[in-house]
Write a structure and sequence with these properties.
Blueprint lengths: L2 E3 L2 H14 L6 E7 L5 H13 L2 E6 L9 H6 L4 H10 L4 E3 L3 H4 L20 H5 L3 H16 L6 E7 L3 H13 L5 E5 L19 H7 L1 H14 L6 H10 L3 E9 L17 E8 L2 E8 L9
Bound molecules: adenosine monophosphate.
């Protein structure tokens, strides 16, 4: 049965009780952080967590600290009752759905102390959305602190590869701050036309949707070029995307999945991820594909 908690005190008590009551000597507790407006991508994340853990905790919180655009924050879809159905269906044990006051007492004045993600948080998505990754790292650190089970339980947290920069930053976060949480990653879930599922897709009209399909198509073209050993010719693809109707390209780059530093065209003898971001209609969409799947960091 899925239980919902809205306060830090209540969820902490429940996690402690559940791990102490567990039949396992070292129960595995999985945390799945989300901002709600859940779709089957989140469902897959929940399922993966369910398959590998004894206790699954999903969080639903639209984190204002990670929005650089107040309009985006205001219009971010919120549908808690529907989300709860999906979370129940995928077997979440606990759902932590705090309000703003629980997470940031005194908001908007607080919090004064935040996590800084340094230069890693200032590349690509971080450059276009200043403060975004510091906001993500701050809320995730708080969630880990709130939801972490007492020893000897083991804690892991699941993130989607769709947010590839976020995933790289989460890995650095737990390493640099010695957070006792194992980061797990799930491949991107796409719709039947290849568009990566995203909570923001529900704000696309038919025309926007068609324009958005250029995003996965550009990535597939890059994967095909990489597989066949051709030159990537990013500039040609960028030109194509810039000429496309209804799509405003921000970046299309190939990066190292750990450092997020750009890899020059053709240097594909090491792990390489293609990252893309574009504005389509009222939303900004991001996507990624692995150009060297065999060489990438472990899942
Ligand atoms: P969000 O609610 O958008 O913050 O996403 C919560 C988690 O779900 C993040 O770890 C995302 O990377 C992951 N996620 C979102 N969309 C997808 C998708 N299409 N496939 C896999 N994971 C996803």
């Amino acid at each position: 049965m899925t239980q919902v908690f809205h306060t830090v005190t209540a969820v902490r008590a429940a996690v402690t009780r559940a791990t102490q009551k567990s039949a396992q000597q070292q129960p595995v507790v999985s945390i799945v952080p989300t901002m709600g407006a859940l779709h089957s991508g989140h469902g897959a994340l929940l399922q993966a967590a369910r398959n590998s853990a004894d206790i699954v905790i999903a969080s639903v919180f639209v984190n204002p600290l990670q929005f650089d655009d107040p309009q985006d924050y205001q219009h971010y879809p919120r549908q808690f009752e529907k989300d709860l159905e999906l979370l129940t269906r995928h077997g979440a044990d606990f759902v932590f759905a705090p309000d703003l006051e629980q997470m940031y007492p005194g908001y908007p004045e607080a919090p004064l102390v935040r996590v800084s993600t340094g230069e890693l948080g200032q590349r690509w998505e971080g450059a276009s959305r200043p403060g975004h990754f510091d906001g993500v790292a701050t809320v995730v650190t708080k969630l880990f602190t709130i939801l972490h089970p007492p020893a000897p339980a083991v804690c892991e947290a699941w993130f989607g590869q769709k947010d590839a920069e976020q995933l790289a930053i989460m890995r650095r976060l737990v390493t640099d701050l010695n957070l006792p949480v194992r980061i797990r990653a799930l491949p991107i879930v796409r719709d039947e036309n290849g568009l990566a599922l995203s909570s923001r897709n529900m704000r696309l009209n038919d025309q926007d949707y068609d324009a958005a399909l250029s995003i996965p198509r550009a990535l597939v073209a890059l994967v095909e070029r990489a597989e066949s050993g051709q030159e990537l010719d990013l500039e040609e693809l960028r030109g194509h995307l810039r000429a496309a109707d209804g799509l405003d390209l921000d970046y299309l780059v190939v990066v190292d999945p750990t450092t997020l530093q750009e890899i020059e065209d053709g240097a594909l003898d090491k792990p390489a991820l293609a990252l893309i971001a574009a504005r389509v209609g009222p939303v900004r969409l991001i996507d990624t594909m692995d150009l060297r799947p065999g060489l990438s960091p472990s899942k």
